[in-house]
Specification:
The structure holds two protein chains of two kinds. By secondary structure, chain A is mainly α. Chain A is built from seven helices and two strands, in the order E-E-H-H-H-H-H-H-H. In chain A, helix 1 packs across helix 2, helix 1 packs across helix 3 and helix 4 runs parallel beside helix 7. The chains are: A mainly alpha, B mainly alpha.
């Protein structure tokens, strides 16, 4: 049976590129990031070209995506988070399309790599922290002191709050990466069963494969949504600060 | 510096990744290119969305919302106008009904007065005519009695003359007798 982890291998495409001492070669991962960005850009630029009053099908799709994200931000972070809308939209679309493109056989899922999801999550973590301190100054530290907690418990609670705040980028990135990796590994394993059991016993794992593919498409959407909505919630803490 | 730190930190995982069946995700060799290309591609996408997609979408959605809210406002205004007109119409109908009732009532009243007036006039006329007739009858009756008396006297006179008895009878007595008979007869008639 083929190694189910093989699909996650990063291979350099073309010549090795180095900036200074750093290796920044173009890889299959980079290729799929580029494909994701090109598809999203093309879809949205083309679909929004004609701003008709009664939208065409493509325009309707792009407007649905826009309103989906707009509603998500408005419900979790309120109207003050409006300036961050393009970023959240980019984040949601990037993860969603990466996950969905990853569902195509023989493609590469960029979000199944911890370093990709961690970079995104870490960037959000830093950004949210900076926004929090810029908006509230040192008052942002009140985030770690929940109101209504007995003074005796306060030292413990504050430590727990700080740890949970610092673990945000890790939980955010691991959730997405682990989901994508687990799903793709499972699909590969069941695919392997189909081949090894052959015509006689291969039908059962084949059925599972089909069902799992449906599930994985759901997970692909759900994880993009969760990532975006958690970002909104963190943003809400930074902007509105009520704990 | 950064890279060497990473390599030292994750050397154990890197060793694990190198084995068959390990996780390629934990191979630090592949991290830097991924971070680099992620920043570039994500940056480009963010720029495209910020500068092109977001303004276009928000504009078209806002335009549509404006248009829809304009239509709603207009619909509200028209509905208010309709209500106003409807109210005026109902008021007009009610007023017309009342007017019609009043006109009918007035007509009835006028007719009654006119009828009563005409009735009285006619009654008066009838009374007058009957009074006049009665008087005329009375006069005629009186006249007739006189005429009859005269004729009776004349006839009696002529009769007596024919029979050559006139000189035996006092003329005044004849007159008296005729008057007496006539009075008696008329008294019987009356």
């Amino acid at each position: 049976m083929a190694n189910p982890m093989q699909q996650f291998e990063v291979k350099t495409i073309g010549p090795k590129i180095e900036i200074g001492n750093f290796d920044v070669s173009f890889t299959n991962s980079s290729l799929f990031m580029v494909i994701t960005v090109v598809i999203i850009s093309m879809f949205f630029v083309i679909s929004t070209q004609k701003k008709s009053l009664v939208p065409s099908r493509l325009q309707l799709l792009s407007e649905m995506a826009y309103e989906f994200v707009a509603k998500m931000i408005a419900e979790t972070a309120g109207s003050k988070a409006r300036p961050f809308f393009p970023f959240i939209l980019t984040l949601f679309l990037f993860i969603l399309f990466s996950n969905m493109i990853g569902m195509i056989p023989y493609s590469f899922t960029t979000t199944s790599h911890i370093i990709v999801t961690f970079t995104l999550a870490f960037f959000i973590f830093i950004g949210v922290t900076v926004i929090g301190f810029v908006k509230h100054g040192l008052g942002y530290l009140k985030l770690f002191v929940p109101s209504g907690v007995p003074i005796v418990l306060l030292p413990i609670i504050v430590v727990i709050e700080i740890i949970s705040y610092l673990s945000r980028p890790i939980s955010l990135s691991v959730r997405l990466f682990a989901n994508m990796m687990a799903g793709h590994t499972m699909l590969k394993v069941f695919g392997g069963f189909v081949i090894s059991l052959g015509l006689v016993g291969g039908w059962l794992p084949l059925g599972f494969s089909v069902a799992l593919t449906g599930l994985e498409i759901l997970v692909a959407f759900l994880q993009a949504y969760v990532f975006a909505i958690l970002t909104c919630i963190y943003l809400n803490d930074a902007i509105n600060l009520h704990h | 510096m950064f890279r060497s730190l990473l390599i030292i930190f994750f050397s154990s995982t890197a060793a694990y990744a190198a084995e068959d069946g390990g996780m390629p995700q934990l191979d630090p060799e592949s991290w830097l290119p991924q971070i680099f290309w992620l920043i570039i591609t994500f940056g480009i996408l963010y720029y495209v969305i910020l500068k092109i997609v977001f303004p276009r979408l928000s504009e078209s959605i806002e335009q549509r919302n404006d248009y829809v809210s304009d239509l709603i406002d207009e619909a509200k205004k028209l509905s208010e106008q309709t209500e106003q007109i409807n109210k005026e119409y109902n008021d007009f109908i009610l007023k017309s009904k009342n007017d019609a009732k009043e006109i009918i009532q007035n007509g009835k009243n006028n007719f009654q007065t006119e009828f009563d007036k005409k009735k009285t006039q006619l009654n008066e006329k009838i009374n007058n005519i009957s009074k006049k007739s009665e008087e005329e009858i009375k006069i005629f009756k009186n006249n007739s009695i006189n005429q009859i008396n005269i004729i009776a006297y004349q006839v009696t006179n002529d009769l007596l003359t024919e029979l050559s008895l006139i000189n035996d009878v006092d003329k005044n007595k004849i007159q008296e007798k005729i008057d007496e008979i006539s009075k008696k007869k008329i008294g019987d008639l009356n």
